[in-house]
Write a structure and sequence with these properties.
By secondary structure, the protein is mostly helical. The protein has helices spanning about 10-25, 35-45, 45-50, 55-65, 95-120, 150, 155-170, 185-190, 190-200, 205-210, 215-230, 240-270; strands at about 75-85, 90-95, 135-140, 145. The protein is globular and about 60 Å long.
Length: about 280
């Protein structure tokens, strides 16, 4: 039997993906942030059409077997541009409802794979403060997704992040370093092969074995992201896409750890460098 998503994608990822998207649709009624092209389209779909996706039979027939690759109309991804504030153009993706659920399910596999590493190792690094516009949490007992409005709404997490940065800059600021940068077209440049390689290095062997994170899985993930990006790589940017936000955050986690290690090793040299303005200013 040829490799397919059944090798590693469990039905619980698919079920949780539907719950996550449904939560976003419910949020649309009380928060105009969710009043976007995709959400308006999904909301107008017939309830029966959406309900049939939440069945084991649908998952087994169209997802686990990779049949979706041959159902181009049902599992479609369209590219369209939107203007940026600096007169540039941002590349956006529009997913049909089944395609969006599938992308979310794949993203939740990444969450399951990286969750212990992020919560028990990365977040314990006191020098690092980060956020990604959401806060996806797995239940401790069965590792299913804990879905609520706070998990998908960026603003409280952004405010918390800003306050943590302000707090860190109080006191002995002469011994602190601030690095501000903007990665151009960041989502388009995320390398799925590199991210898979880094996860292979940091995730515990026992968990990789349990979730079947092996050569077959890596090949299926690379093929899927090539499919939704038209072979151009990166991760898709869509409206209200907490999964892409998480994947972008996950990729930068490894960059954070690298920078944190370099600053610990060479921090004194950086702060006292003439290019850093001595001890009188923070860059």
């Amino acid at each position: 039997m040829p490799p397919n998503l059944r090798h590693f994608v469990q039905f619980r990822y698919w079920h949780d993906a539907i719950r996550l998207l449904d939560t976003q649709l419910l949020a649309k009624h009380n928060n105009r942030h969710f009043n976007t092209l995709s959400m308006c389209y999904y909301e107008r779909l017939r309830t029966t059409d959406k309900q049939q996706l939440n069945s084991q039979d649908y998952f087994e027939q169209k997802i686990a077997t990779n049949l979706f690759y041959g159902l181009g109309n049902e599992f479609a991804v369209y590219s369209y541009p939107i203007p940026k504030s600096n007169l540039g153009v941002r590349k956006y993706r529009f997913f049909t409802y089944p395609a969006r659920v599938l992308y979310y399910a794949i993203g939740l596999y990444f969450l399951d794979l990286a969750y212990e590493f992020i919560t028990s190792y990365y977040q314990d690094c006191q020098a690092i403060h980060s956020f990604y516009g959401g806060k996806l949490i797995l239940n401790q007992n069965d590792r299913t997704l804990h879905v609520n409005f706070k998990a998908i709404w960026y603003k409280p997490h952004y405010q918390e992040f800003r306050e943590s940065v302000k707090s860190a800059l109080k006191g002995m600021v002469e011994r602190k370093i601030v690095i501000k940068l903007d990665i151009q077209n960041y989502f388009d440049e995320v390398s799925i092969p590199n991210m898979l390689h880094l996860l292979d290095q940091f995730v515990k062997p026992s968990l990789k074995k349990e979730l079947r994170f092996d050569g077959v899985t890596k090949g299926q993930l690379k093929a899927f992201f090539d499919y939704i990006s038209y072979g151009k790589g990166g991760i898709p940017q869509t409206d209200n896409d907490v999964i892409s936000s998480f994947l972008g955050y996950l990729y930068l986690v490894f960059g954070d750890l690298l920078l944190e290690g370099q600053i610990r090793q060479y921090g004194g040299s950086i702060i006292n460098s003439p290019y850093a303005g001595g001890n009188d200013e923070v860059n």
